[in-house]
Specification:
Number of domains: 2
Strand order of the largest sheet: 1-2
Order of helices and strands: EEEEHHHHH
Structural class: mainly alpha
Largest sheet: 2 strands, antiparallel
Distance between the termini: 84 Å
Helix content: 40-55%
């Protein structure tokens, strides 16, 4: 087989017959005397044997794990969007009727939580992980949404109305809101296995929609 040679003087590359292996001769380009390396056998790298169980023909019976891709669902988006629109229409009706009953507001916060949890997860989930579906997604959304509603309820009725007597100053919000954001973000991150930053965005979506609904209904935002 031909021997690949590189001249150490002019760095020219050329091939010579293997019968010249180990001999000396001039470079065809710069005429410098060089030594032809010895011919070596070609090294063949064999693929490693496959491990694991095999069938009668010696073929591996293991199959790669298939992953079902979950793309953005316009059906889910349309359903959640329709509910949010209905919620804003109801808020406008409540505004025209005067002060909304506390039980009605609480029910709205509870129902809104899981739906926004599902919607936020659709956008913020980790694409590298298998997505939650079916009952698993329902349970996680219910838990996450319930925590969101409880946090808002604790703020509205325990902190704002009872401790602060309905008068909330900016510095008081700076003391109350960060713990709420921390708990809500951790809840979202733990429920849907997303990072803390996306968990904060997830909880922020719930807070944003809730505040907008309160303003639409003629209630105080905070």
């Amino acid at each position: 087989m031909p021997i690949q040679v590189i001249c150490p003087g002019c760095h020219a590359r050329f091939t010579v017959s293997d019968k010249f292996g180990g001999k000396e001769g001039p470079c065809p380009k710069c005429k410098q005397k060089i030594k032809i390396p010895e011919a070596v056998d070609e090294v063949v790298v064999h693929a490693p044997d496959a491990f694991g169980p095999k069938d009668s023909q010696g073929q591996s019976v293991l199959r790669p794990i298939s992953r079902q891709e979950t793309n953005f669902s316009w059906v889910w988006a349309a359903g959640i969007g329709l509910f949010v629109v209905i919620a804003f229409v109801v808020a406008l009706i409540m505004r025209s009727m005067g002060e909304a009953p506390t039980a009605f507001v609480a029910a709205g916060a509870i129902v809104l939580g899981p739906l926004l949890a599902v919607g936020g997860y659709t956008f913020l989930r980790n694409d590298q992980l298998e997505p939650y579906r079916g009952l698993d997604l329902l349970v996680r959304s219910l838990i996450c949404g319930a925590v969101y509603a409880v946090l808002w309820g604790v703020y509205c009725w325990a902190v704002k109305d009872y401790l602060l007597s309905g008068n909330v100053e900016l510095f008081q919000l700076l003391l109350v809101v960060p713990p709420m954001l921390l708990i809500g973000s951790l809840t979202s991150a733990a429920s849907f296995e997303i990072d803390f930053g996306n968990g904060a965005l997830h909880y922020g979506l719930y807070l944003l929609v809730t505040v907008l609904l309160r303003c639409t209904a003629g209630m105080a935002a905070f």
